[in-house]
Specification:
The complex is a heterodimer of chains A (277) and B (356).
Chain A: H1 5-26, E1 28-31, E2 35-40, H2 43-50, H3 52-85, H4 88-99, H5 106-117, H6 122-129, H7 143-168, H8 171-179, H9 184-212, H10 216-222, H11 229-238, H12 243-272
Antiparallel strand pairs in A: 1-2
Chain B: E1 2-13, E2 16-27, E3 31-35, H1 42-50, E4 57-62, E5 65-66, H2 72-75, E6 78-80, H3 92-102, H4 107-120, H5 136-148, E7 154-158, H6 166-183, E8 186-191, H7 194-200, E9 203-208, E10 211-216, H8 218-223, H9 228-233, E11 238-247, E12 251-256, E13 259-264, E14 273-278, E15 284-286, E16 292-301, E17 305-312, E18 315-322, E19 334-338, E20 345-348
Parallel strand pairs in B: 3-8, 3-9, 6-7, 7-8
Antiparallel strand pairs in B: 1-2, 1-4, 4-5, 9-10, 11-12, 11-14, 12-13, 14-20, 15-19, 16-17, 16-19, 17-18
Helix pairs in contact in B: 3-4, 3-5, 4-5
Classes of the chains: A mainly alpha (277), B alpha+beta (356).
Amino acid sequence: MITIAPALLLFGALLLVPLVLTLVLSFHVFSDSQGTLATYTLSNYLRVVTDPYYGAILARTAGLAFAVTALCIVLGVPETIVLARMKRPWQSVCLLVVLGPLLISVVVRTLGWQILLGNNGVLNNALQALHLTSEPIRLVFTMTGVVIALTHVLVPFMVMSVWATLQKLDPQVEWAGLSLGGSPLRVFRRVVLPQILPGVLSGSIIVFALSASAFATPALIGGRRLKVVATAAYDEFLGTLNWPLGATIAVLLLIANVAIVMGCSRLAERRFKHIFD
Amino acid sequence: MTFLTLKGISKRYGDFAAIEQIDLDVERGEFLSLLGPSGCGKTTTLQMVAGFVTPSTGTIMLDGRDITHERPEKRGMGVVFQSYALFPHMTVDGNVGFGLEMRNMKRAARAERVAEALELVRLSGLGGRYPKELSGGQRQRVAIARALAMRPELLLLDEPMSNLDAKLREEMHIELRAIQKRLGITTILVTHDQVEAMTISDRIAVMHRGTIAQLSTPFEAYERPETPFASTFLGKTNLLPGAVIRRNGRCAEVDVAGTTLKVPHEGRPAQGDVNVYIRPEKVRLAGADARATGCITTRVFVGNQWLLQVDTGLGRLSVAQPNFGAPPPEEGEHVGLVWSDDDLRMLAKETGDGHA
């Protein structure tokens, strides 16, 4: 007990106390003239749940998280498989390239996307030069732009997760599939893919949770009007100074995230219980 | 007619030659073992037969057809891997039926064949289990059943027993041999366990540094090793360095540490420096007719026999005496030793690189 006490204190001070304070804050009454009052109410929650304005923000956030997760699966899984099959020097180089986005500051990276995706950006200039479009495609301040930029930074988490399961895969299993007459494609689909599913699932959970609570990328690429839950909470705190409402939004995001992540983990545990150690 | 032929097979990885110019013929229905220490190239050879590794030179013929560059999934060979390589996400039935599924066999026919294969390895009733829920021995049986369910003409076994405990391994040797004989399936086994190779095979190919050091029946390989490596790798032996003095019709006179031994040369050229070999079990304790005397330095009881080390004028000799009931003399006592000249073997001294 004594030996774990410092860690417990640190954990409590850094995580539990702010969380509990946020939870308490979310039940406070807010008045436009006097600010946060010492009385308690459930009206903040009622407002967020019933007001279609917040409903739209919640729906947008969910859509963003699902889209980014799906894209990360579609891009990250084949990417990892190709990476795993590469020869030595190239493998390390490419792995570094893939993990690169994690090494760059979120602001720099996002501004980079602005340069690339903007109306006068590299992409639109190239499309117009090639006469593929007559006017710029709007990407900045759209959901498409946000999804692209978020996918870019979150794919590494999928890659790392799938990479870990691929490393555990018995290389002879693939040979076994071939020797039993399966074509490489069929062996991949029936033997390799099912065995890396747990990695895909845990990668998806990480990507989903991070994109649902992402702040910087939606704020910079999505702009002020295309709000997601995290930016909405930020605006309540610092824009309208309605701290209780901001806290309510934050608490709801946390609950939704925990529920979805736990649900997926539980499902995975039950599904893979027989199979993996 | 030979069923499988390896002709001039080599495999190089950069400058390293894993296999150097192997020629091997396997008869239909034969059980052949590739025996050797780790790194001798036995697994690489098997992988080339299976098609997982492409040879650098040479051809592989299966039943008159050149399969050197054929894809592994087209070869229709049954392979049992050292790790068993079972599919963890499929049940035993799913594993055993996988090959049949790949051949697009109908579900009902498939179930029948799977049940048949499981019965063959005595695993009936466990079809619904996952590999994780089986013991090591059961997993190995599933791997064998999976390979056999396809009714392959050639069965390749890559050290399948190395993860089993000793007792189970002995049982599996007998059982595997029985299954192989019943099905008449041509089988190649890769192993580093000489007892396993001798118990189970029709012929043994002793491999050493990417070449075949000896190819013969287990008895021949043990009794008449053709290379220094084969004589020391297969079983225990006493090695006595000597020099040929004279060569007669049937035997050569060899000087070993001042004593002259008569060694049968079996028509092989014999001159200069040689090594004389004699198996520990061919040396017996003797009284008046002793051919050498010495002092017992160690005495070990292993149940069915006693293992003695005796320091003699010829050098230190290992002697294996069957357990007749009475213990042999104690350590430190002097004993006489006797052997028959016919049991001596002689090979030219190993050259620097160890090749015969």
